[in-house]
Amino acid sequence: MKTIERDVVVIGAGPSGLTAARELRRAGHTVAVLEARDRVGGRTHTDVIDGAVLEVGGQWVSPDQTALKALLEELGLETYSRYRDGESVYIGADGTARRYTGEWFPVGEHTRAEMERLTELLDRLVEEAGPEAPWEHPLARELDSESFASWLRRHSNDEEACNNIGLFIAGGMLTKPAHSFSALQAVLMAATAGSFSNLVDENFILDKRVVGGMQEVSKRMAAELGDDVFLNAPVRTLRWSGGTDDDGASVTAVSEALTVHARRCIVAVPPNLYSRISYDPPLPRLQHQMHQHQSLGLVIKVHAVYARPFWRAAGLSGTGFGAGSIVQEVYDNTNHGDARGTLVGFVSDEKADAMFELPPEQRRQRILESIAAFLGPEALTPEVYYESDWASEEWTRGAYASSYDLGGLSRYGRHQHTPVGPIHWSCSDIAAEGYQHVDGAVRMGRRTAQTISSILAPPPGTASGPGSLFTKVTQ
Fold first, then answer.
1. What is the four-CA torsion angle of 102, 107, 109, 111, rounded to 10 degrees?
2. Which residues take part in binding substrate (predicted)?
3. In sequence order, what are the residues at sequence separation of 6 or more whose Cβ sits closer than 8 angstroms to the Cβ of residue 178?
């Protein structure tokens, strides 16, 4: 087996790991990036399915994602706006599809008032808690001990309002039932977007896409790193010694492809995969417990490609919401410059459970019928149909990002960045701003690289060039 030596070994060639490696090399340190898959990009993947280019993984860029936007510009990648002209469609509790424009669903006066009031309450909590350390909020333990579903119904007696507000975090972001995560976790999710009001504004959260696909971010960073990126190299064992600030600390990463001896290690995979690695010596008790309280959700990302974007001719934007529908969200996802029309829909949490119990053809029919309820019968006959199932991916096992169970965030959140000896953690799942998004992955990559670079003495005569991104990154 091949053995190499580097200053830092990075496990995972997603946006966070590649950002960290790129920054460390710019600072004069040697790196090796080991990736289990046969590709780079992690939970971003732009693939060609039956002749159609599909964004299988993460894809959107919002105005507040300044770290990602700066990186896109540096890498020479352009963005384009998501199509949103025309009316949207809302399917309410009675199953009726209603067309509407503006920010609010076409619901009854009482339901709308309750949705506005719940939004104001959440915005207030977000402002108080912030994304950095919500576990320090005076009511953190109380909020973390109550499910988001229970919190909503404690503050409102309008079931439709509760379901609609819950949709934006449970189905739209954490992809878990609202009874399975805490109100504090919901506050953190909203805080990472700046406010709950931002989170419910699809024109803000789902603003732009990357020309060529989001995976291009990872591909271009990997191209810069060249032969220092090793694919098909899942790390099975990490042997480590020394403390976090110990100049004599060392780590050995053993993969099926090669062994890397290094001074520091960055584990840049989601927390649910930390345990796929054997640590010698074992991680501290706290880490073992913390990782067992973090898990990813479940979502089917549905792609349907048509000869033309038929919904536009009908005056529809392609956007639809329905908390009780199988497909709870649908959007126009047509590629830049493509004459064909593409829709993307999301089937989350328990609805995804129900769909996966069906045979593939029956599942496809049920899902397309749900999309057709928003946009009409032409939705039933796409030229290309594909389901992204990240939960079945060996090196992902869920979507979109890790979150804590009840009580976990206030109990363990303050420890999730803490290194173990020479081992550091870096992924969007533990980011503050940009949590769950590529922007958070980039921020964490820079932050982790900056921490390690401050520990490792740069090689003699080496200095960061004027183009280095080693600047303070707000987390």
1. -110
2. 346
3. 147, 148, 149, 152, 166, 169, 170, 186
| Type of residue found at 306 | Y
The response to whether 97 counts as a known ligand-binding position is no
Give me the numbers of helices (H) and strands (E) for the chain, helices first please: 16, 24
Assess contact for 240 and 249: CB atoms under 8 A.
yes
Q: How many CA atoms lie within 13 A of 321 on its CB side?
A: 23
Local structure of 76: helix, strand or coil: coil
**Cβ atoms of residues 161 and 178 within 8 Å:** no
Dist CA 237 CA 420 (whole Å): 15
Q: What radius of gyration do the chain's Cα atoms show?
A: 22
Please, where in the chain does CATH 3.90.660.10 lie? 46-84+205-213+299-392
16 known ligand binder: yes
Query: By C-alpha distance, which of 268, 57, 300, 273 is closest to 175?
Result: 300
Q: What is the CATH number of domain 2-42+215-283+420-455?
A: 3.50.50.60
- pLDDT tens-place string over residues 429-460: 999 999 999 999 999 999 999 999 999 975 55
Q: What residue type is 226 in one-letter code?
A: G
Say if pTM beats, i.e. exceeds, 0.90. Answer: yes
Going by C-alpha positions, the residue among 260, 228, 234, 251 that lies closest to residue 2 is 260
Q: 46-84+205-213+299-392 maps to which CATH number?
A: 3.90.660.10
81 appears as a binding residue in the annotation: no
Contact 374, 97 (CB under 8 A): yes
Over residues 47-85, the pLDDT tens digits come to: 999 999 999 999 999 999 999 999 999 999 999 999 999
Q: Which of 317, 62, 284, 375 is nearest to 195 (CA)?
A: 62
Q: Rounded to whole angstroms, how far apart are CA atoms 8 and 20? A: 10
Helix ranges, 27-139 (H): 66-75, 109-129
How many Cα atoms are found within 13 Å in the side-chain-facing hemisphere of 404?
29
In CATH, what number does 104-200 get? Answer: 1.10.405.10
